Amino acid sequence: MSVGQELLDVPLPKMVADLSMGIARAQEALDQNSVKSAVMLAEEKISYVPKIVGTVKEDDGSANINVVKVDDVPLIAFLQPTFYQFSEASIEVKMDIKTKLETSTSVGVSASVKGGWGPVSASISVDVKHNRKFGKEVNGTSRLFVKMVPVPPPQGLLPEVDIKFIPKEPAGGGGGSN
Q1: Strand partners, 96
Q2: What helix, strand, coil percent values describe the chain, rounded to 5?
Q3: Quick check: 42 and 81 in contact, CB under 8 A?
Q4: What is the helix (H) or strand (E) element at residue 29, kind and residue range?
Q5: What is the number of structural domains in the chain?
Q6: For residue 154, how many C-alpha atoms fall within 13 Å in the half-sphere facing its CB?
Q7: pLDDT tens digits, one per residue of 4-49
Q8: Domain span including residue 13
Q9: Is residue 31 domain-resident?
Q10: How many CB atoms lie within 10 A of CB 15?
Q11: Which of 63, 112, 156, 158 lies at 20 to 30 Å from 104 by C-alpha?
């Protein structure tokens, strides 16, 4: 079976359906991977230092440094998994078919006569050569192009992170109103 015939034998609807189902399976795998990453980041707890506060007395140079440390913060508060989606897919099929026909004919005629005082013989010879050459060259290529782009995570999948640091009130009370 020729390359061209093989390409023609695959119906376009089947090609499109196979491409679509392949993309759907790949998209599902990408989504599952991103959700798995989100769960791992949510379960991983870290401690970190968001702030270091200090005072230095000008008169004697003594310092009072306080480190604000936060424990058990989910890593997802700082890192979010990347989600991807397929934004474009195309199938391109190209065929180049060349046919060639060469025909040549040659005719040769010869005649001879023999005779003398008696019977005479004559002959005519015809030589016909007919050649016909067929040539066919088929080249086929197909190309599949798929483009993926990063997208934000689905709404509601990741928790909203709103961490506020409330400074300590100075000793003696604040007295301010809310």
Answers
A1: 139
A2: 25, 50, 30
A3: no
A4: helix 12-43
A5: 1
A6: 8
A7: 666 667 777 888 888 899 999 999 999 999 999 989 998 999 998 8
A8: 3-151
A9: yes
A10: 15
A11: 112
